[in-house]
# Entry
Amino acid sequence: MIAVTINGRRADVEPGTTVAAAVMRGQAGFRRSVTGELRGPLCGMGICMECRVTLNGRAQERSCQVLCAEGMEIATDA
Amino acid sequence: MPSTLVIGGGPAGLAAAWAAAQTGDAVTLLDDNPALGGQIWRGEIPARYRRFLDPRITVRTGVQIHSATQLPAADRIILATGTRERFLPFPGWTLPHVLGAGGLQAMVKSGLPIAGKRVVVAGAGPLLLAVGGYLRKRGAKIVLIAEQAPLQRVARFTRSLWREPGKLLQAARLGWGLRYRTDAWPLRADPGSVTIQGHGVLRCDYLACGFGLVTNTELPELLGCKVEGGAVITDSKQRTTVPHIYFAGAGSVDRSILEGQIAGFDLERARALYPARDAAVRFDRRIDETFHLRAELSNLATPDTIVCRCEDVPFSAIWQQRDWRSAKLQTRCGMGPCQGRICGPALEHLCGWPAASVRPPIFPTRLENLLDLRD
# Structure
């Protein structure tokens, strides 16, 4: 198992799990849209940009295109 | 040694890279995703195609291409940038429990548990059945598969499948026991449910919803390849209108593999595959005719339904616009991070606007990357 933190809380996921799948296990919303709507992944393939999160302090990363790695810090804005 | 650069590691790109390696080329394969296999295989490449992973191919995954200047030099480029789903706006389609049909499948393949979840699959095309079958196998409860096409068209298509017993068997295996209904489409989604035409309000944890596939033409267009009606123009050898640039992989997996091999092989070996490829193209045309989108789907969005999810532009703001350009300038529709990849195909259907032209960077990028390009 791989240990990551999602908004400060520890989560253990199987190897090969994307950041998007790891986040979606615990919450539906990933971000707030420009008018404040709660949004989550739509396309699952790196195109729609709805699943953006902050990864290890780097904002606006597409969570569906990144695999979880040991110790990764994931932060969502919703 | 001549060099071939393949962009996209789905079925078409893998087949192309393998075929090019057989001709003795030095092959580099680039892909944006963390693993090869594209959206359909996602790292789980079927045993009969594992030979495509020729050790002579240099593979780089997790690579995003923003501009033409970034591409490594090569004697030949094969573009296999794949397809994406078409989404149509309806009230509630921006809620977090609404995903693409392929979208939810991709999430499950990449680690989202689905066992015990109630899923409604809706939209258009054979992908719905494939997704429903896959999710059921992973333990989901498939409440309904809602296909918008009329029964008559779907029935005619199914009857014609006796000529392709393999495909008929595949469809039967996927769909056996699933509640598949034609003439049904989503009217609105609300938290925890969806309303389907003819089937009322259905409780669900997820709505997996896609209205067919559109080709990712951004990179081919950026490189100057002619694109018409959403398709990259190619000749029988899969050559685009730009010398030394090939395009492969629109439509089904079978067709993509054939197109990839034709693009990658020398002319003699490629020619032997033309009849099979042409048959696959004809089959895809029958699919398009069967599942083309009904007019009612243009009337699902209400004035306050968001059309552009990046900039939260409501449908009412689009009405007064003449074309894409004025919509972009006046409303910021299509100007957000997805750069019109989601709302573009939707508005093509809703307003009849052809896709806008692309310009680099074709994906949002960081300033640090742009500074790198200067060097």
